[in-house]
Amino acid sequence: MRSRKGSGFTLVEVLVALAILAVALAAAMRATTGLIDNAATLKEHLVAGWLAQNRLQEHIARRDFPELGSQTGSEQMGGIQFNWREDISGTPNARFRRIEISVFANNQTDYASARLIGYLTSIR
């Protein structure tokens, strides 16, 4: 007759292996969730940056020389609704305007997803 001793795993060994596997899978799920959240945030910042660049390039293409002050608006880009604010201020040279474009996602006003500073000139 053969002895069955050593020919399989005990219940304790199986439970320990399952516990280790459960911890490893939980860590993998947490890492995957973090990557997905980061990808969504990166998309938001990237698209907001494009929107800010588009706003500045639109002023340049139209050869605008806007009045001092602030302008606001909203736009949808990349499937995300953004609000933007343009703060226009003067410079020591009267022929230049400083424009700061802030882009906010999801109706936030305290945290800008993108911020761009540029300068516009009057051509006369």
TL;DR?
The protein has 124 residues and is of the alpha+beta class.
Task: Walk me through the structure.
The chain has 124 residues and is of the alpha+beta class. The chain has one domain (11-121): 2-Layer Sandwich (Pantoate--beta-alanine Ligase, Chain: A,domain 2). The chain is built from one helix and four strands; from the N terminus they run H-E-E-E-E. It has one helix at 11-62; strands at 69-77, 80-90, 96-105, 114-121. The radius of gyration is 28 Å and the shape is rod-shaped. The protein starts with 10 loop residues before the first helix and ends with a strand. The model has no long low-confidence stretch (mean pLDDT 89).
What order do the helices and strands come in, and which of them pair?
Blueprint: H1 11-62, E1 69-77, E2 80-90, E3 96-105, E4 114-121
Antiparallel strand pairs: 1-2, 2-3, 3-4
How many structural domains are formed by the residues?
1
Work out the radius of gyration.
28 Å
CATH architecture: 2-Layer Sandwich
Strand content: 25-35%
Low-confidence stretches: none
Strand order of the largest sheet: 1-2-3-4
Strands, total number: 4
Separation of termini?
Answer: 107 Å
CATH superfamily: GSPII I/J protein-like
Main sheet overview:
4 strands, antiparallel
Structural class: alpha+beta
Tell me, what's the shape? rod-shaped
Keywords:
124 residues; alpha+beta; Pantoate--beta-alanine Ligase, Chain: A,domain 2; four-stranded antiparallel beta sheet; 1 helix; 42% helix; rod-shaped
